[in-house]
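Sample 3 of the quickstart, ligand cobalt (II) ion:
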Amino acid sequence: MKIKFLAFFILHLSSLLEKEMSDFYKKILDNNKKWVEEKTKHNPKFFSNLAQSQNPPLLWIGCSDSRVPANEIIGAQPGEVFVHRNIANMVIHSDMNMLSVVDYAVNVLKVQHIIVCGHYGCGGVKAAMGNNSYGVIDNWIRHIKSIYRLHKEDLDAVEDENERFNKFVEINTREQVLDLAKTSIVQNAWKNGQELHLHGWVYGLNSGYVTDLDVNFSSNDDLDDVYQLYFS
Ligand code: CO
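Result:
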């Protein structure tokens, strides 16, 4: 009897979940229709104009976290921000995906600003502080662990775990801005006199506000000697 009840309960629960999923799927398709109506209400040519070209002044490199939507946070309209997201907003110098996005943004779109936006409560950064294995992702997280090793003394000095976590999020974001400045793409743009400013931000999941970490790079003179590239 108990097993029968349990089976019924599980079946009922799974059909409820299925319904919720299909409701969500239907909802997002409906949302798209409403969004198009809203956008074209005052400007019927909104999409046909956008389709001509894009000229965004900004490249956003952020975390994949669903709670950190690039466009929404900064009130950007379609066409205003070029976006790259990955787990923990990393700038890994051998990541072809990131390099291609940065190359296109800098050399074709000629963006003037690149923001690396980290966020408090980042699961990737948290995982890098611990020792649990999460599968393939461990190899991505390892890049963040290297940042910990680089700042181990400062980080270990923070006793409160949550404060240490927050500090690590900030440090990781700063390091990603630095790694971006080290790329040949960014250094070459600076050498050619292109206006290109790099920034590091941290987004607060609890507040919605961003904090500018004031890590501004606008020239390769700001880099350590060993990273400076001389272009002929
Ligand atoms: Co994150």
